[in-house]
Amino acid sequence: MKTLLLLLPPLLLSGCALLIETAPQVTQSTAAMMTQLPLSDAWHEGRRAQYITTDVSDEAMAIKANANFAPRLRDAIAPGPKVPGRRHALERVYKFTNFSQPVVFPSIPLPSGPASRDASYSPLWQVVEVTWTPGSVPAELRSEEAILKAEDAGRVQLAILDVVVNCPVIWSEAGGLLPGAGRFRTP
User: Fold this and answer.
1) SS (H, E, C) the chain
2) Distance CA 104, CA 96 (A)
3) What is residue 13's predicted lDDT score, i.e. its pLDDT?
4) N or C: which end of the chain has fewer CB within 10 A?
5) φ, ψ dihedrals at 185, nearest 5°
6) CA 22 to mean position of chain CA atoms
């Protein structure tokens, strides 16, 4: 038994070396490959932004967004009521239910990329549905402040859902394009 235990670590290490040696290597041709992802439009403080949706914790929303169904994202929602000043990984994203307009983000990376200094930004968003109340005249709302003012005036109702989405912001008028990303128009 003692001999087996002494031989086990070298065997494990040689197995790891074998895995490393046979792992696919990044080559010039694979490094040059590009993937096209659908961009969605958004608003942040009255300025345009664009994001990608990769994962959604709700299956129906994931299907609609052509995103990965990732139910574990829901685990990012803190249990109990939100406590002022308690930090967590989620930010809000405002999605409209009865009026067609882009979503509204309360934070974005500024600037885009590793130089971002916006401590509020997170690519994980808890969905807040915005519904225009009967008798209100819908209009495009382009900031969290505008949404909250419309709520205070009774023009919209907000519903916080137990749905989390992973939607990294990759471009904004304020922050520019994520470094390393390319932009092109399709014909």
Assistant:
1) CHHHHHHHHHHHHHHHHHHHHHCCCCCHHHHCCCCCCCCEEEEECCEEEEECCCEECCHHHHHHHCCEECHHHHHHCCCCCCCCCCCCCCEEEEEECCCCCCEECCCCCCCCCCCCCCCCCCCEEEEEEEEECCCCCCCCCCCHHHHHHHHHCCCEEEEEEEEEEECCEEEECCCEECCCCCCCCCC
2) 9
3) 40
4) C
5) -100, 140
6) 34
Q: How many CA atoms lie within 13 A of 100 on its CB side?
A: 0
Least confidently predicted of 21-25, 30-34, 102-106: 21-25
- The pLDDT value given to residue 183: 75
Q: What confidence score (pLDDT) does residue 186 get? A: 65
